[in-house]
Amino acid sequence: MSYIKTKGIVLKEMNVGEADKILTIFSKSKGKISGAARGARRPKSRLIAGTQLFCYSEFVLFKGKDMYSVNSCDVIEPFYEIREDLVKLTYAAHMNEIVMDNVQEEQPSSKVLQLFLNSLYMLAKTGKSPDLITRVFEIKLMSILGYAPSVMGCLKCGREDFKDFYFSFEHCGFLCRQCTEGDRYALRLSEGAARAIHYIVYSNMKNVFNFEVSNSILLELEKVSKRYMKDRLDKEYNKLNFLKALK
Q1: For FRET with 1, which of 10, 174, 206, 223 sits at 20 to 30 Å CA-CA?
Q2: pTM above the 0.90 mark?
Q3: CA 91 – CA 126 distance, rounded (Å)
Q4: b vs e for 122-148, b when ≥16 Cβ sit within 10 Å of the residue's Cβ?
C-alpha cells in the first residue's frame, strides 16, 4: 500500500456527508494536495484537531485513485490565536488566498511554505503590525515565485543611494527621478520605503521580518505591493477591504 508521511498546513476544509471533510493541504513534500478526512467532524475523532483551518500537522496519507486519504495527523502548531481573532483571521485568509492561487497541485514549494508558516507565526505569536507582516509576505512571495523586482538601484543609470527613487511598474523595479521620463505611472518612494523593499527582496527568510517602519512607509509598501501583484498575477486581492469597511 502507498502511504506517505509529510508535514503540511490545512489551507481549506470542506464538510461532506455527515462527518467527513475534504481538505486542501499545503504539504512540504507534495505541494498542494487534496485529502479525505473521514469522520473528522465526529467529537471523538483522532483527526479533529489536526484538520482545522491553518493547523500545521504531520500527516500520514494513503494515496487513492483520485485523492489522498488522511490516515492520521499529529498537530505541530494549531495557530489557535488566528482562528479566534477576526482581524488576524482576515489577514491570514488574504495570504491563504494568494497561496491557494499560486501553489500548484503536487508541486513542492518549500520556500513558499516556509514563508507562509513564518508569516502566520508572526501574526499569531507576536505584536508586529499585521499590515507589515502582510506586505513582507506579498513582496517576498513575488520574489520566490520568480517575479522579483529589480531593486538594487536605478535600473537605467545604476544609482544605489535610494534617494528620490520611484517604483516603475512598467520596468518592474526602481528608477531615479532623472530616469523616470516617460514613465507616468511610476510611484514616488521615500528613502525608507525604497530601503524596506530592497531589504525584503534580498533578505534571507530567517531575518526578513526583522525591521519596523512608520505608518506612512507602510502605506507606500501597500501601494507598491497591491499594484505589483495585480500586474504580475493578473488578479486583485480584496479580502482586506473588509477590515477597512469595519473601520
Answers
A1: 10
A2: yes
A3: 14
A4: bbbeeeeebbbbbbbbbbbbbbbbebe
